[in-house]
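Translate sequence into structure tokens.
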Amino acid sequence: MPSARYTSVAVVLHWLLALGILGLLVIGLAMTQLPLTPMMQFSLYQLHKSVGVTSLLLVILRLIWRLLHRPPPMPDTMPQFEKRAAESTHILFYFLMLGLPLSGWALVSASVFNIPTVLYGIIPWPNMPVLSNLSNKAPVEATLKTLHAYGAWLLLAVLALHLGAVLRHQFILRDDVLRRMSLRLPSYGSVIARKEFQ
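Result follows.
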């Protein structure tokens, strides 16, 4: 018997956040590790901030939705220790998905450069009031930069663990776990059939 699925809203938010997180990790690595021109690096920092704020808003929506809609139960065949491990990983994911954008926002607010954040070059985003008014920003900025960087590496590790578990369920255990969060896209044949009957 197939396991219950997450709601359509939860599925869409999950995959939007997945894209956002992957984008943030790629952009973050590129802007800090690659030899870029100052203008390109500046553009990537601005894009990173824009996607980071968007991800923060999405994870808040996802948390609200999850509090209002109970997730489907895990398969009865899954051992208890695996269920607990999955729940712990999800809690850590939420902590990092909230903590990283907030620490990034704090980092930008405490920056000695005081560069304004304009989301996607259109929407001005404010700095955190207390941090933006510090008299000596440099040590706070350095601490937040370290915290944000280590948080990103931890998120990458948790993401790898999550993907490994998904692949194990899909290709080794061959259960329905992945289907619970999969996007329901119409097949090519069903689209053609629908057009023929219109």
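Note: The two ends are 34 Å apart (CA to CA).
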